[in-house]
């Protein structure tokens, strides 16, 4: 087991960082893994490179521990988007998805429709981007074979009710883009059929890391359209083209980045050692501190306040004429945040320090005094 304090000690970023929703600076654990494998790869001591081959099983087992999916139903992917496209291009029928989701989902569905003509996007109407079971129930049709949703909405910070969605969609495929909450939201992934995530945000594993998890139902209904030579049951399929594997392995194109696999595995193992529930509670506390500061300085909070509806994302929505002032104040005080669509997104993690919150307070003080 790893304690929460030990986990927090692995946050190496300088104070003021509140943009995990964009990218999480790699952890100390991942940095050490990266250095070790880079050295191994550079030296290539006799017999040593064989160790890199163990990274694939290691990362699948680590992902299995956090999702509940069997390891042979998980496959490494270099990004959330690539995992989603692997799954969505293999679906037939209507896919219910909100156009307000992060572009990975709606673009994948639309491109699959344009290219293959066997899948059709059905655009879900939502209340300011929040995908809820009731909205899905009202807009379901018999032609809908799959529902796609983000675990955490990138713009609003809203956490989807996966249990509730599963209850209303029945045996249709449930596809989850999990990247904005994976590792910090204690979600019931077992109710999903497809879980795709990257490791570069809240897991802090760096770019080029991710995985795709598929349920038995998904494996039975989704055709691996982009299945390369590594997607068969043979080690190297020379001289003849065998059928694709009947496991998640089919959803591969070529050999993966073994170093990236090791980095993701180490990050996932660390999360499991601490416990997602404990990390989630720490993230919720950090986000609550940010909300309290916004309230103290009279800045509207557009993201959910209820703890069960939010994770680490807090969206501030000042008056339109004040947005530039707020952005400038954060910049001048060294606070890293994301400004988009009339709001400022602050993303707090379990390792967010008192010094960082103090810098945020200083920025908000300067902003308030600018009037």
TrEMBL record:
GO molecular function: transaminase activity
Pfam family, one: Aminotran_5
Boundaries of every Aminotransferase class V domain copy: 32-367
Record keywords: Aminotransferase, Transferase
SUPFAM superfamilies: PLP-dependent transferases
PANTHER family listed in its UniProt record: BLR3095 PROTEIN, CYSTEINE DESULFURASE
Name of the protein: Aminotransferase class V-fold PLP-dependent enzyme
């Amino acid at each position: 087991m790893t304690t929460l304090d030990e986990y927090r000690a692995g946050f190496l970023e300088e104070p003021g960082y509140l943009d995990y929703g964009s990218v999480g600076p790699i952890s100390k654990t991942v940095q050490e893994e990266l250095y070790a494998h880079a050295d191994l790869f550079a030296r290539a001591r006799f017999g040593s490179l064989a160790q890199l081959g163990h990274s694939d099983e290691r990362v699948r087992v680590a992902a299995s521990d956090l999702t509940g999916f069997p390891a042979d139903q998980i496959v490494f992917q270099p990004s959330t988007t690539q995992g989603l496209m692997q799954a969505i291009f293999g679906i037939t029928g209507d896919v219910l998805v909100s156009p307000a989701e992060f572009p990975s989902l709606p673009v994948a569905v639309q491109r699959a429709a344009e290219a293959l003509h066997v899948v059709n996007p059905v655009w879900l109407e939502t209340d300011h981007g929040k995908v809820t079971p009731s909205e899905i129930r009202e807009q379901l049709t018999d032609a809908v074979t799959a529902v796609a949703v983000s675990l955490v909405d990138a713009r609003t910070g809203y956490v989807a009710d996966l249990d509730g969605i599963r209850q209303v969609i029945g045996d249709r495929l449930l596809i989850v883009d999990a990247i904005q909450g994976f590792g910090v939201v204690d979600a019931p992934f077992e109710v999903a059929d497809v879980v795709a995530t990257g490791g570069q945000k809240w897991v802090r594993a760096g770019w080029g890391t991710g995985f795709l998890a598929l349920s038995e139902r998904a494996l039975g209904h989704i055709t691996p359209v982009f299945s390369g030579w590594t997607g068969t049951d043979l080690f190297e399929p020379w001289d003849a083209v065998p059928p694709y594997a009947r496991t998640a392995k089919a959803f591969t194109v070529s050999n993966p980045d073994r170093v990236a696999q090791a980095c993701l595995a180490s990050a996932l193992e660390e999360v499991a050692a601490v416990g997602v529930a404990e990390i989630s509670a720490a993230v919720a506390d950090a986000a609550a501190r940010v909300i309290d500061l916004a309230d103290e300085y009279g800045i509207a909070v557009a993201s959910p306040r209820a703890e069960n509806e939010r994770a680490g994302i807090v969206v501030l929505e000042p008056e339109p004429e004040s947005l530039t002032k707020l952005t400038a104040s954060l910049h001048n005080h060294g606070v890293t945040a994301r400004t988009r669509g009339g709001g400022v997104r602050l993303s707090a993690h379990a390792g967010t320090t008192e010094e960082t919150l103090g810098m945020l307070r200083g920025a908000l003080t300067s902003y308030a005094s600018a009037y």
